[in-house]
Amino acid sequence: MTPRQRILLLTAISVVALIVVVAFGGVAYLQSQAERNAPSAVAVTPVTSFAGARIEFRNTAFGADFGRVASVSLDDPAGERSVSRQVCDRVYSTSKLTMCLKTDAGIVTTWSALQTGSQEQNWSLPGVPSRTRISADSQLVAETSFVTGVSYAAVGFATETIIATAAGESYGNIERFTLLVDGVQMTAADRNIWGVTFTDDDRHFYATAATGGSTWLVRGDLVDRTLTSVHDDVECPSLSPDGTRIAFKKNGGSFSAPDWHIAVLDLQTMSETVVSDKHSVDDQVEWLDDSTLLYGLPRADVVGDSDIWSVPADGSAPPTVLIQHAWSPSVVRP
């Protein structure tokens, strides 16, 4: 074979390969568009706003409403859901505000935090959205996003956690707060802070701090700008409505290969109760009330879909599915 023939052959192979790639890409795009424009897999009612006592969440039922913020009545969680036009990766609401962390797809993918409701603000995120919370009185908001990595199970992930007032005053990245573990200041470069949950005084909060492969529950102070360790091995804390307990992810595996189960910490006695051992759960728990926990769990057999589960906070019964095709729950009582 002459050099010219070899060049022609390689060119032909390259053209065929390009045609195959374009064809597969076109088929995948058309399939994704068909799925996106298909009728919703669950019964929905389009709305411009939500009302009444409800659970708000990210709708994960495939169809035209995938990813949109939705709600169901507290009295009928399995009933028809109301769906808004807002698309979020992570969402949390009170009766006055909604925090939406979202991906802005384009030639260059970006991410942002959007606060809507009685007061509005937005800011850019450095990476993939992870956690968000609003204080019970709607005066403070918090969000966590990944600077590197996309999961807490990834080796070498890094986070950024911002707390701000609803009126727009930012406390900045709380990783810059003074971190005290057993009275010793931790200054390691690999420290990460994530998963804020607020107390009721608009000054203090709880979060997870991590460095050197260890994690702690820390109590934060917005005035003193400190983070003080409270308990070991606590991730993604969620304070109970009565302020006496913390629900969290307890890692039964290793830092690099986690196996998370939901547990509850009594803040007075520091005793732990593991309430879920059926699945490994990577979510920040929401309290339905003082006796019941909610969390999201991806479906093992369907990529992108998930369900919201409930479990008694005292571990007296196994977890059960509360809302199908749903993620990122928040309980809203007007």
From TrEMBL:
This is WD40-like Beta Propeller Repeat. It comes from Salinibacterium xinjiangense. InterPro entries: 6-blade_b-propeller_TolB-like. The chain crosses the membrane at residues 7-30. Keywords: Membrane, Transmembrane, Transmembrane helix.
